[in-house]
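hey m, so remember when u said the tokens were messed up on ur end? i reran from scratch. heres the input so u can diff it against urs
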Amino acid sequence: MTRAGLIIVDPQNDFGNPNGALYVPCGEDVVPEINRLRALLRAIDVKDVFITQDWHPDNHMSFVTNNPGTNPYEDIVLADGTVQTMWPPHCIQETTGAEFLSGLIMEPSDIIIQKGTSPLVDAYSGFGSTDGLTSVTTLMEHLCSKNITHLIIVGLAFDYCVAYTARDATSFGFCTCVVRPATRGISETTCKKEETLMFNKGITIVETVEDACNWVIRNCLN
């Protein structure tokens, strides 16, 4: 049996509001596209929605302010050998920047997955840390409990948390589709890099929300 679900990645003020600490260019434009996608998916009985939320403590190791002598967006090597990008402080727990974007349709049945909650581990992917071991979110548990086999992934940002979530999903055996108009990226260079990595993993990238629904119909409803 096949069953599709929607993952909305980090639709938060610090990413999608022009005043956000780590604003993704035109990030706010994903909101109407995600809302339209939700309506179309509901019409074909796809109702399982999972929303990831960056939820960092203020002493998070990825914040440039917690690493004296580093610069924003610089890559450093941590003591354990992990390469870590230095980010401006963002999505700090219980702050406005961590809240979800205004206008985003949310339902009581939506499942919120918080990530990046440990001060010592970053987690771009909705599933947790890059190694899949150090920090694991509840996303896999919820997907399995709903018998999800196919995932539609949208949100912010295309070249980081969306791409990492999509690639992990495929590695864990989910058939995965990313909806380009319902996501935005930080950098053209990193977007191209991540797009190639996703294609190489067999991830489908569609150009319209209608294409995403057709993907579900072809793969799950026939």
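this time it looks ok to me. The first helix runs from residue 13 to 16. if urs says something different then somethings off w ur setup not the seq
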